[in-house]
Description:
By secondary structure, the protein is α+β, with helices and mostly antiparallel strands. The chain has 19 helices and 22 strands.
Amino acid sequence: MKKFAQLFSELESSNKTNDKIAALVNYFESADEKDKIWCLALFTGKRPKRPVKTTLMKEWVVEVSKIPDWLFLECYSTVGDLGETLSLLLPPPAQIHDKPLHQWMEEIKMLYPHTDEEKKAYVTEAWNGLNANERFIFNKLIGGSFRIGVSHKMLVNALARYSGEDASSLMHSIMGKWDVTTTRFTELINGETINADNSRPYPFCLAYPLEGEPEELGKITNWSAEYKWDGIRGQIVKRNNEIFIWSRGEELVTDQFPDLVEAVAGINHDFVADGEILVVKDGRVMNFNELQKRLNRKTVSAKMLKELPAGFYAYDLPEFGFEDLRNRPLTERRNKLRSFWPQTSRLLLSENLGFESWDHLAEIRQQSREVNSEGIMLKRLDSPYHSGRKRGDWWKWKVDPMTIDAVLIYAQKGSGRRSAYYTDYTFAIRDNDKLVTIAKAYSGLTDKEIMEITRFVRDNSLEKFGPVRTVKPELVFEIAFEGIGYSSRHKSGVAVRFPRIARWRRDKSVDEIDTIESVKALIR
């Protein structure tokens, strides 16, 4: 645990990719084999089910530390992270637990069916033998809130540097279906498990945002263009009569889309198709909010299957008939895809957009929201299907974001390096004579602006709800977002997609913010 806690601390204390990779490599070079496989499991989301409720952990800390509830809440609001608050409030350890990470994880797994009293005895005993940093990690692991700022690509790059193995093969291995209790670290990174798993997807080929003018890309005859759909990027894998659907987040979502599974079952070929999962009704791509209603459900009702039918817009073919096509040019992969893809109401082909000039394509892009598209994808006709991003092959040329003016009404302190400042904001718009929340945003301001807002929050707080402060509705901000749709889960009746702060509108008063009517007018 000590080495893993040190690794976590080094990863959290730096925002430089090379420093994080170096810390990971150092850990892989020095850690126990069983600890290394658990490290991979935790960093790729293969965590055991949460055995202890955080409300119980809070009660136990209050009891052990002998502090009143109000003081705990004050500490929590200052620190901004529950796991860290718990670790800091506990008294110094009376002993030393020197168990390795894998032993802690096995014990945590076994804890789930025990009674609350048995869990309390285990957790308090663990706290009594760990220092503050180790307790912080332990609290995250046992409370189910373990998160780390390490992307799968960064993890793979560190493994490649450590092992000398090909990054693409490593991505195959860690994205595949493997069990942390039965898989050895060496066999995983050596690729010994990847051929036995019919479900494995390929690392997704990703695009860079187009920041300049499209004319800089050269001749239009070297490029294909298609709509950039606002859904869930996915790969449908069909091998040996088994069907799997993977999201770009490297999660199996097969059970969430039984209608797609049924449609794919009728294709008499083995393949891996890359594309976009959307709700497609009566031939029209629906707003992302409609798709969101189908996500993360254990079961999908017959009513939902009828009202929100899933569609898959295919646009690439990394594998066909067990043959890896990724190094073939895009034109060849697309021709093969077109030759067998059925193009039904469920399985569609993201066709190339015909354009005569870059100016013509710009006009198509400007109208893309009319079909619920985010813009245009540009792909070199000779490009391979590479792993991750490679500058120059695929570009996403998105339409300019939508914007509204909203007023700040709630603020909460951040975590980690920002735990002393109010950095999490909730904004509202006007609904007749009242304000209704429209979005939360965390990014888009300078450090100087954050400090200025923090002073405003301290001087103008109206109410306290744990770590959240209600503030005077005076500061107006321009909020940018990628999409908007109706939502029954929000007081305003609408939800925006990917909100962020575009700028602080010091020139506007609260009387000039957007209304619910003007915001709903943006929904198509």
